């Protein structure tokens, strides 16, 4: 072959290469008519299943997407949690483990599915503070979800950074992202449409050129306050023809769809597991399918609120923290397994396929294992691992001390009153109280318990200690500004107690890694128990905390979340990816127990 021939071939390769790449990444169009979604200019019914990458180990993303597809979905919907990706001001993570949003999007596309993104800034989702970063609560007079310039500066930074991640994957660039949501259920919160319009403009100015939608309840006032001209109307849920007709009247000229059709529901600590009626769901989905209405199952698979990510509500029963599991009684359970509901929906949706149409096979389930009884031992305590204290004239919230999660120990000497009625205004959210190192009792915001009687002591200057756990921040409605710890003051018989030492116990990765045993034998609650166990094979499992009272569990350094004896959840999910063959370690911090208890690991949540 001559040099000239080689040059001609190279030129041809150079010319044809873009064509080849374009063929691999075929571009489509997605837009609105006055009443319908149009994919490549043809009417398109979105049948979507909601998955949250932050609640699912990255190793399982592909499996869960395949499960949704096998149930009959053609689209995935995903909340993006701002505070999961920006934990400190200006510090973003889009690369580590299940923070890798680009990989999640690629996986959706690899499975020939479309994607709807719901990036907030606020999302609700039973997630801590509805996805808003708690570092904003360090600003004493901050206002959220409005045009407060401090909040908006942070939201603009987040939108600009997230836009960098998602821009290459828009349908306008050959990707799977069809559209994005503007905020979430804003009509349930406020009526600042300037704020909503500003968010819409920010996405556009950052190169996000796909259609947008809003999501609100099907009531006139919610739709008036929460919708935007030119943005599709999502209904949470759209259950009837009347719902769709109302939305079309309130915001004409755009498609209406059910952005949250609920196959399950959330569960709070102290409740029974939510188990919504499947017959109602089937009737609702049949209506949507019969009338070719687009819809999104919220959620098709919930996953897990690992670590400190579970949120809370503040309904008629006061403070209502969510359990760690986000099983949600969804069609695909916390382990990724199909339920009765899954099979019923698959059969129903499959009945609308063309004559020779067939749904994909259901993927194999992830193996689960049982682990023989583990016998933890006392390892150390918070009392042996206190940091240098911060001096504070009065007690203050976690956020005032620059801490977002975990625990804080508030300590003071009693001068003047030394016994009687102790009142904490207010306790957020749970605390154990000690006097001279002796356990006195607990305080519980959930039950409205913020007072306790201190017994008489002969000590000249008794030491009062209040170990406070911050649980999930409220994620819905009017009480989003939910600071943790002691939010105002502590009084004893009406006297305000001053001069506190503040010990910050964030229970983050660094704190847990640095734990050291003192060798002391303590009978004072606040103890870490450690157990070792060996595995020949790995698989998903559930650690059963039925013998324990209240606390947190880590496996090989991974925070599995909170447990609490009041239930209904007694078992914490541990995915296979957190385990290893050979030696493993489990660490349990319990607020009440002083002696360890045997610990089994079982195959299922219940």
User: Mean pLDDT score, rounded?
Assistant: 95
The percentage of residues in β strands lies in 25-35%
* Strand neighbour order, sheet with most strands: 4-5-8-9-10-11-12-13
The level of helicity is: 10-25%
Radius of gyration: 26 Å
Count of alpha and pi helical runs: 11
**Structural class based on helices, strands and sheet pairing:** alpha+beta
Could you name the CATH topology of the largest domain? TIM Barrel
What ranges have pLDDT less than 50 throughout 5 or more consecutive residues?
Answer: 3-24
The counted number of beta strands is 34
Question: What's the shape?
Answer: globular
| CATH class term of the largest domain | Alpha Beta
Oligomer: single chain
Structure description:
The chain is α+β, with helices and mostly antiparallel strands. The chain has three domains: 23-303 and 318-350, TIM Barrel (Alpha-Beta Barrel); 371-380 and 515-602, Galactose-binding domain-like (Jelly Rolls, Sandwich); 386-505, Sandwich (Jelly Rolls). It is 20% helix and 27% strand. It is built from eleven helices and 34 strands. The strands form eight sheets. The chain has an eight-stranded parallel β-barrel, surrounded by five helices. Helix 9 (278-290) runs parallel beside helix 10 (340-350). It is globular, with a radius of gyration of 26 Å. Mean pLDDT is 95; it is low at 3-24.
């Amino acid at each position: 072959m001559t040099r000239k021939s080689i040059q001609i071939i190279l030129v041809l390769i150079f010319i044809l290469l873009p064509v080849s790449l374009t063929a691999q990444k075929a571009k489509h169009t997605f837009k609105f008519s006055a009443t319908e979604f149009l994919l490549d200019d043809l009417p398109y019914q979105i049948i979507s299943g909601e998955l949250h990458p932050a609640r699912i180990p990255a190793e399982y993303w592909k499996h869960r997407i395949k499960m949704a597809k096998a149930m009959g979905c053609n689209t995935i919907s995903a909340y993006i949690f701002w505070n999961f990706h920006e934990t400190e001001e200006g510090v973003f993570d889009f690369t580590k483990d299940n923070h890798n949003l680009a990989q999640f999007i690629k996986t959706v596309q690899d499975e020939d599915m479309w994607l709807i993104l719901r990036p907030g800034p606020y999302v609700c989702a039973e997630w801590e503070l509805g996805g808003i970063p708690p570092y904003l609560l360090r600003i004493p007079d901050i206002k959220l979800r409005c045009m407060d310039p401090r909040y908006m500066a942070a939201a603009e930074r987040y939108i600009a950074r997230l836009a960098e991640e998602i821009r290459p994957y828009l349908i306008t660039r050959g990707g799977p992202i069809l559209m994005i949501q503007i905020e979430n259920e804003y009509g349930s919160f406020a009526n600042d449409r300037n704020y909503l319009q500003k968010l819409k403009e920010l996405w556009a100015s950052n190169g996000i050129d796909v259609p947008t939608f809003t999501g609100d309840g099907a009531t006139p006032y919610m739709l008036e306050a929460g919708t935007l001209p030119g943005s599709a109307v999502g209904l949470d849920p759209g259950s009837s023809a009347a719902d769709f007709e109302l939305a079309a009247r309130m915001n004409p000229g755009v498609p209406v769809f059910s952005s949250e059709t609920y196959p399950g529901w959330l569960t709070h600590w102290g409740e029974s597991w939510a188990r919504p009626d499947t017959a109602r769901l089937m009737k609702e989905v049949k209506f949507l399918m019969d009338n070719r209405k687009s819809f999104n199952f919220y959620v098709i698979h919930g996953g897990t609120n690992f670590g400190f990510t579970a949120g809370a509500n503040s309904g008629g029963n006061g403070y209502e923290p969510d359990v760690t599991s986000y099983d949600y009684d969804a069609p695909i359970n916390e382990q990724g397994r199909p339920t009765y509901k899954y099979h019923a929906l698959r059969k129903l949706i499959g009945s609308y396929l063309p004559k020779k149409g067939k749904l994909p096979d259901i993927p194999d389930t992830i193996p689960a294992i049982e682990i023989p009884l583990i016998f933890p031992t006392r390892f150390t305590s918070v009392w042996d691992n206190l940091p240098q204290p911060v001096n504070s004239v009065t007690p203050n919230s976690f956020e005032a001390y620059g801490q977002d999660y975990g625990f804080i120990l508030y300590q003071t000497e009693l001068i003047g009153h030394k016994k009687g009625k102790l009142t904490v205004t207010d306790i957020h959210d749970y605390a154990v109280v000690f006097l001279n190192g002796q356990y006195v009792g607990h305080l519980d915001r959930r039950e409205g318990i913020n007072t306790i009687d201190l017994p008489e002591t002969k000590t000249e200057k008794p030491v009062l200690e209040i170990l406070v756990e911050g649980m999930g921040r409220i994620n819905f409605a009017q009480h989003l500004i939910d600071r943790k710890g002691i939010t105002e003051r502590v009084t004893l018989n009406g006297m305000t107690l001053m001069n506190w030492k503040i010990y910050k116990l964030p229970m983050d990765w660094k704190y847990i890694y640095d734990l050291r045993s003192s060798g002391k034998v303590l009978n004072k609650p606040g103890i870490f128990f450690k157990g070792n166990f060996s595995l020949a094979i790995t698989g998903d499992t559930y650690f059963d905390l039925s013998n324990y009272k209240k606390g947190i569990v880590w496996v090989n350094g991974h925070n599995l979340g909170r447990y609490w004896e009041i239930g209904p959840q007694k078992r914490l999910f541990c995915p296979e990816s957190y385990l290893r063959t050979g030696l493993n370690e489990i660490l349990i911090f319990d607020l009440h127990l002083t002696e360890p208890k045997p610990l089994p690991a079982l195959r299922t949540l219940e």
